[in-house]
Amino acid sequence: xxxxxxxxxxxxxxxxxxxxxxxxxxxxxxxxxxxxxxxxxxxxxxxxxxxxxxxxxxxxxxxxxxxxxxxxxxxxxxxxxxxxxxxxxxxxxxxxxxxxxxxxxxxxxxxxxxxxxxxxxxxxxxxxxxxxxxxxxxxxxxxxxxxxxxxxxxxxxxxxxxxxxxxxxxxxxxxxxxxxxxxxxxxxxxxxxxxxxxxxxxxxxxxxxxxxxxxxxxxxxxxxxxxxxxxxxxxxxxxxxxxxxxxxxxxxxxxxxxxxxxxxxxxxxxxxxxxxxxxxxxxxxxxxxxxxxxxxxxxxxxxxxxxxxxxxxxxxxxxxxxxxxxxxxxxxxxxxxxxxxxxxxxxxxxxxxxxxxxxxxxxxxxxxxxxxxxxxxxxxxxxxxxxxxxxxxxxxxxxxxxxxxxxxxxxxxxxxxxxxxxxxxxxxxxxxxxxxxxxxxxxxxxxxxxxxxxxxxxxxxxxxxxxxxxxxxxxxxxxxxxxxxxxxxxxxxxxxxxxxxxxxxxxxxxxxxxxxxxxxxxxxxxxxxxxxxxxxxxxxxxxxxxxxxxxxxxxxxxxxxxxxxxxxxxxxxxxxxxxxxxxxxxxxxxxxxxxxxxxxxxxxxxxxxxxxxxxxxxxxxxxxxxxxxxxxxxxxxxxxxxxxxxxxxxxxxxxxxxxxxxxxxxxxxxxxxxxxxxxxxxxxxxxxxxxxxxxxxxxxxxxxxxxxxxxxxxxxxxxxxxxxxxxxxxxxxxxxxxxxxxxxxxxxxxxxxxxxxxxxxxxxxxx
Length: 767
Known about the structure:
Elements: H1 2-25, E1 28-36, H2 45-63, H3 66-72, E2 73-77, E3 81-88, H4 90-97, E4 104-107, E5 110-112, H5 118-121, H6 135-138, E6 146-151, E7 189-194, H7 197-203, H8 220-229, E8 233-238, E9 241-246, E10 254-259, E11 261-262, E12 265-267, H9 268-281, E13 285-288, H10 301-311, E14 315-319, E15 338-343, E16 347-348, E17 352-355, E18 360-361, E19 377-381, H11 392-396, H12 405-408, E20 412-416, H13 422-431, E21 436-440, E22 457-460, H14 462-474, E23 479-483, E24 487-488, E25 495-496, E26 516-519, E27 523-526, E28 545-548, H15 551-568, H16 574-583, E29 596-597, H17 605-608, H18 615-618, E30 623-624, H19 629-638, H20 643-646, E31 671-676, E32 679-688, E33 693-700, E34 705-710, E35 713-716, E36 722-731, E37 740-748, E38 753-762
Parallel strand pairs: 6-10, 6-13, 7-10, 13-14, 14-15, 15-26, 19-20, 20-21, 21-22, 25-29, 31-38
Antiparallel strand pairs: 1-3, 1-4, 2-3, 5-12, 8-9, 11-12, 16-24, 17-18, 17-23, 19-23, 27-28, 30-32, 32-36, 33-35, 33-37, 34-36, 37-38
C-alpha cells in the first residue's frame, strides 16, 4: 500500500491543481452598462479613443492591469450607448458593479428569434387596387424613411431589395455596407453590418468565414426586413400558395440590416452593439424580432438599446414572444418599446382530401394538388407500408428509414404526427416514392396547420384522421386525391393564435403589454437563398419567398406602418406614434364579432393589447397620449432607480421628483390596475394633434367595477394643446375577486374615437 501512496498523492495534487486552475480561469462574457455619453451627436476620433481608454481604465482598476483590461474587452460601445463587453470572472464582474458610474453589469445571454394579403386585410389596398385615401398614397409609400432591422442579416439579391426607381440615399445616412461574402448594397438596401464578437467570446475560438458576413444564411432576417420595407414584387408565392404581389409596409423606405443573431439566437453584447451602430447611422425606426427572457430593464440589452434609441427620436418595435397562451409570458415590456402580439389574417391555405367513397375531409398545407388533378391514387397506412427492419411505432410517424419503397411508390401515405418534424415525414414519404401524404393529428386538442411539405400533403384533424383510417381498413382498394386553393376574404379574422405571448407584464404589471396585435400567421415574405423553407438540414430546396408565423412576423408589420406615419407626421414623438396606433385599433373581427382565440373563445387585452392595428385610422387619431424622455426617467425613479444612476442617461442634469410619480399615472394609452381593493384614481393627459374640437367621454365598464371620469368634456382650441383628466375605478361591493376584468374608455368629437383599454384585477369583487 505504501508504494502506491506517492503516485496517488501526486495524482490528487495534479487533479486539484488542474481543477483550481479551471475554476480560477473560468470566465464568461458580460455587459458593463454605463449609461449615455456626453460627447454629443458628432464625436471625433479623439472622443471615441478617449471613451475606449476610459473603459480600459475602469476595468483595469478591477483586474490590476490596464493591459489585461484591453485583452478582456471585445466591444466598446462608443456612439450613443456607453459601456463595454468583456470576458470576466464572476468576482471581477461583482467588483465592477460596485464602481461609481456603473449602472449595471449582467452576463451575456442568448435569446430566441421569435406578404401578399396582409396589407389588403389591413385596409391599405382593396381588391388589388390602392385607393386615393390609403395611408400608402398619403405617405408616398414611406419614401426615404429609414428602417433598421436587428436580426439574422439580409439576402441582398432578393427582388424585395431592388432599388429600381429610387432616388439618392438621404443625406442624413451615416451607415455603410460591409462587403464580405459579396454583400452589395444599393439605394434600397443602404446598410448591411454584422456583429459577432459575442458569439466568438461564447465559443472561445476564432470564427470562420460564415460568421464574417451580413448575409442572411437563415432566412429570418430577410423575411422580417422585407415585411417592414420590401419593394413591390409580383408573382410571389410558396409552391403556388398565396400567390400575389409581395411588398413591405413602407415599400419606398430605405432599409438597413444589422446582423446580431446567429442561427437562431442573439447575444446581448452583439444586440447592444447593433443598437449603438443603428442609432449612429441615422435610422428612423428599429424593428427587433427577438424575444428576451423578462428581467430588469437595465439588465436587458434590448431595453437598454431601445431606451437610447427612443431618446434620439427613433421608434423601436419588438416582438412580444411566442410563449403563449401562458399568462405573463409577454416579452420586451419596457414602456418605451412598442410590443407586438400576433394574429391571423383572412387567408387560409386549405389542402383537402377526397376519398374514394366521395367523402371530403378538410386539411391544410402550403403544398397541395397532386397532378393530374382529381385523379385517385392508392392510399396506404404507413404501418402497413413499413420496411422490414422498422417498428410499427416508427412507421406510424413516418420516421426516416421506416417505409418500404416497394409498398409506397405511387401511393398516398397516411402518417401520424409525433416524434419527428411534420415536414420531415413528407420528405420520408417522397424519398420512398410516394405521391402524397395525409398527416393526422392524434388528439382533438391538436391544431392542424399549413407547412411547406416536400410533396402534396393534407394535415387533417384527429377526428377526420380516424375516419380516413376506418376507410382504409374497411375498403379493399382505398384511394384518394389531395387538392386545394388559397382562400381569401372567406376566413374570420383576426384570431389570436395560441403561440402569441400574453400579459400581464411580468416586470411592471402597471403597464399593459402587449400594446397591439398585427398579422403574424402565415406571412409570405422574401427569404434567404441559403436556406430551405423548412429550416431542416435535409431540405435542399431554395425559394425566393417563404411563409412563416410568429410575433417575429407581426413586429415588422407594425414597423412598416410606422414608416408611413413618420412620413406624414415627422414631428410626432415615438410615444405619440404608439398612441395613434393603439387608440385607433380594432377589437372586432371582419364579421363584426369580438376578437377570439383559436378555439373561438373570447379573448381580451392581455392577449391583444389595444386591439388589431388599423393603419388608415392611425394617421388621424385626433388626440394622443404623449410621453417625453423625462417621463420615462420619472418612471424609472418610481421603480427604484435614483438620480445618480439616471443622470448617466442624459446630457442634462436630472433629479428624481421629490414626490415620485405613481406607476399607474404614466401617460400610457391604456389603463391597467393589477391589484384593486377599494378604489384608485389614475391621471392621463391628452394632446390635440387634429383640428379644434370638443371631446366627450364614455366608458365601457369592467364587470363589478365603477368608472368615473372627471372632467367628462375636453375642449381643444389649438394644435398640441394638452388637457388632463382623472379616472376613478372602484370595486362595487364585496365578493370573490382575483380575476382580470376588462372595459374601455372612449373620447370622441363625433369624428375621432380615441379608445383606451381598461384592465382591472380586483382583489375583492361583487359580481
